[in-house]
Design brief:
6 helices; two-stranded antiparallel ribbon
Length: about 190
């Protein structure tokens, strides 16, 4: 995808819509080079959302394996901004900017650092518009949704249940494993 790794462009210049286009182009190129039809798409968190949105947009009949997909972008965006606030507090030792202040910074043309990536208003607006339960046409192939949790959850989360229903009754598998994005890096001062 543009803006990642050694690809062209800067991460902050691209949106989720660009990632969907890139995924569809990569799938098409893979099929062209291999001569084999793509049988499925998989992703974790926002990558799972991109996979589902790409399959829906292109009307693909492929299997989907969606690990903890971002079902509703506005909630995910709030989580991202909350994480920015927590890191600011940990790094500065004082009260961080509020979500409203972070949003105002973006609206004024600024950027916010999220997990080492600079995000701008266009990218965050595209994330906020995401809603996998309201796709114009759901993907046509079979899907499996995976819910990760550090402890055994008593039930499937409501957002994933709504997504499963929107995907035609896709099963949701609950897996007891700590979600990697919720783990803190081990840190100790140098001796």
């Amino acid at each position: 995808a543009r803006g990642y790794g050694d690809s062209q462009g800067r991460f902050e210049d691209f949106t989720v819509d660009d990632q969907v286009e890139d995924l569809l182009a990569a799938r098409q190129e893979l099929e062209r080079r291999s001569g084999v039809r793509c049988q499925g798409l998989s992703g974790l968190r926002l990558g799972a959302t991109v996979a589902a949105a790409a399959a829906a947009r292109a009307g693909l009949d492929v299997a989907l394996l969606l690990w903890e997909p971002v079902v509703r972008g506005e909630r995910y965006l709030d989580d991202l901004l909350r994480g920015v606030m927590a890191k600011e507090m940990a790094n500065t030792g004082r009260a961080p900017r509020t979500r409203d202040e972070l949003r105002a910074c973006l609206a004024a043309g600024g950027e916010v650092q999220v997990e080492g990536h600079a995000l701008r208003q266009a990218a965050l607006q595209a994330i906020a518009r995401l809603d996998l339960t309201a796709l114009p046409a759901p993907p046509r192939g079979p899907a499996l949704v995976v819910q990760l949790s550090a402890r055994q959850e008593p039930a499937v989360r409501r957002d994933l249940a709504a997504l499963a229903a929107a995907l035609g009754g896709a099963p949701v598998e609950r897996v007891r494993a700590p979600p990697p994005w919720q783990q803190n890096d081990a840190w100790a001062p140098a001796p």
